[in-house]
Specification:
The chain has 316 residues and is α/β, with parallel strands linked by helices. The protein is built from eleven helices and nine strands. The strands form two sheets. Strands 7-6-5-8-9 form a five-stranded parallel β-sheet. It has a four-stranded parallel β-sheet with strand order 2-1-3-4, with helices on both faces. α1 packs across α11, α2 packs across α11 and α5 crosses α11. The protein is globular. Bound molecules: phosphoric acid mono(formamide)ester.
Length: 316
C-alpha cells in the first residue's frame, strides 16, 4: 500500500513503504534487462527534471526511467531558462506546472526546496533528487535495492558509511533507511566532517572516528565523495593525508567480512576516498550495479506516484 503524493525524504517513509518501492523496482529491473525495455504505463503523463545543481546519474536515470514507462520527460536547465534572469524558484515551478506537468524531480542546493514546492504547487507531485545536506531519498532506495540483491536482505547487516558525513545528504538518507530496515549503521569520518548528534539518526547508528574500526566485520562498506574544495576548511592538510587515514584500499577492506561489498554513490575521487583498484574490482565493487539499480528504483518511484492502476501494467 502506497499513500504518498510526494517523495521528499526517507524520513517520511515506513519500513513497509521502503519494501513496496524495492519490490516494485524488482519488476522494472527485470524489464530493463530485456531488449524491449519500454511500457506504456505512464503514457500521456509529463515529468520534468528541474535540476539546479549538476548531476550525471540522478538526472539521466530519471529521464531514462520516465521514458521507459512511456511518460514525456522534459529537462529544464536553470542556466538556459529564465532562472538566469532572476526568476524565482517558485515562479519557475508555477509556470512549468501551468503547462500541466504531472511530476517534478527537483535537485537544489538549499535543504527543503522540494518540500517548499510541494506545499505551494497546485497538484504536481514532487520527488526530491537531492536537497542541500538534507536528503537524497532515491539514492538511499537504490543503495538498499543493490544491497538486497547482493545480500538477500537488509535486516541485521553491518553497513559502514565513511567520508564527509557532515555535508552528505546520501549518508543521512542511507542512515535513516538502513535504521528503519534493521541494519547496523556505522558512520565514520574525521571529527571535523561528522555532524553533532549523528548517532541520533537512528537507533542502530553508531559513530566511529577511525576507519579501521568502522570497517571491521562489515558486510557493506559505502565510501562517500570527499569534497576536495572543503578539505582545507575541514583541517585535513592534504588529499594524500586523507587517503592515508580515511581512504579505502585492499588492505583496509581485508578487515571487513570476506564477502563484503564496496559501494560509492559517485562521482568518485579515485585515489582519495577509494583506491583505483577497488573501484574497478568486479568481485568487490558494486558501484555500477548501483547505477543500474537507479533506473529501476526511479521507475518504481514514478510508477507509484503517477500510475493510476496501482500495479505494473500487464503489458510490461
Ligand atoms: N549519486 C548522485 O547523486 O550522482 P549525480 O550527482 O551524478 O546525480
Amino acid at each position: 500500500m502506497w499513500n504518498h503524493r510526494h517523495l521528499l525524504g526517507i524520513e517520511d517513509l515506513s519500513a513497509n513503504d521502503i519494501d513496496v518501492v524495492l519490490d516494485r523496482a524488482e519488476h522494472w529491473h527485470a524489464l530493463s534487462r530485456k531488449t524491449e525495455k519500454k511500457t506504456g504505463l505512464l503514457k500521456g503523463r509529463t515529468v520534468m527534471n528541474l535540476f539546479f545543481e549538476v548531476s550525471t546519474r540522478t538526472r539521466t536515470s530519471f529521464e531514462i526511467a520516465g521514458k521507459r514507462l512511456g511518460a514525456d520527460v522534459v529537462n529544464v536547465s536553470p542556466s538556459t531558462s529564465s532562472v538566469a534572469k532572476g526568476e524565482t524558484l517558485l515562479d519557475t515551478a508555477k509556470n512549468l506546472e501551468a503547462m500541466r506537468t504531472d511530476l517534478f524531480i527537483v535537485r537544489h542546493a538549499s535543504s527543503g526546496a522540494p518540500a517548499f514546492l510541494a506545499k505551494r504547487l497546485q497538484g504536481a507531485a514532487i520527488v526530491n533528487a537531492g536537497d542541500g545536506a538534507h536528503e537524497h531519498p532515491t539514492q538511499a532506495l537504490l543503495d538498499a535495492f543493490t544491497i538486497r540483491r547482493h545480500k538477500g536482505k537488509l535486516e541485521g547487516l553491518v553497513v559502514a558509511i565513511c567520508g564527509d558525513i557532515l555535508h552528505s545528504r546520501v549518508a543521512r538518507s542511507n542512515a535513516l533507511l538502513l535504521g528503519k530496515k534493521g541494519a547496523e549503521v556505522r558512520l565514520c569520518a574525521p571529527r571535523t566532517m561528522m555532524p553533532l548528534h549523528a548517532d541520533r539518526l537512528g537507533d542502530t547508528v553508531t559513530v566511529f572516528p577511525r576507519l579501521e574500526a568502522a570497517v571491521e566485520g562489515a558486510d557493506v562498506v559505502m565510501m562517500l565523495r570527499i569534497q576536495t574544495e572543503r578539505l582545507a576548511g575541514a583541517m585535513m592538510s592534504t588529499t594524500r593525508e586523507y587517503a592515508r587515514t580515511f581512504g579505502l584500499d585492499a588492505g583496509m577492506l581485508a578487515r571487513a567480512r570476506p564477502d563484503a561489498i564496496v559501494m560509492h554513490p559517485g562521482p568518485i575521487n579515485r585515489g582519495v576516498e577509494l583506491a583505483h583498484s577497488l573501484a574497478d574490482d568486479s568481485d568487490r565493487s558494486v558501484i555500477l550495479d548501483q547505477v543500474e539499480s537507479g533506473v529501476a528504483v526511479r521507475m518504481a518511484v514514478l510508477d507509484l506516484l503517477l500510475s493510476t492502476t496501482g500495479a505494473p501494467s500487464a503489458e510490461a
